[in-house]
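ok trying this again, last paste got cut off
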Amino acid sequence: MASGDSRLRISNDGDVIRVEFVDRNILDEGNIQQIGDEILTLVEERDTPRMLISFASVEHLSSAALGTLITINKRIRDKGGQLRLTDIDPQIYEVFVITKLNKLFQIHESADDALASFSG
């Protein structure tokens, strides 16, 4: 599914695609583009994608990465799917609050909480 130079760890939990980042810092434009392409490919493979993205290992996130998340969220919603974000560092979460993205995304403290929140 993912190539050897993937910036992601991908697994399935039932019908939910779980995505974790390999990198602590998601700042480089090239890496962000690669991550976005990889995640969007996963989204396109499902009729109604259900995805959980964990930020457990992420310490820094650029605004370009946030833009990519918005694109991913829109594509998932367009397909009638659901996206959950989890394990976001408090400093990164503050950026979500300042930009009001905490209203756009369903953000959970733990992966278990996020998994339990999927409907249907």
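PB: full thing came through this time. DSSP finds five helices and seven strands in the chain.
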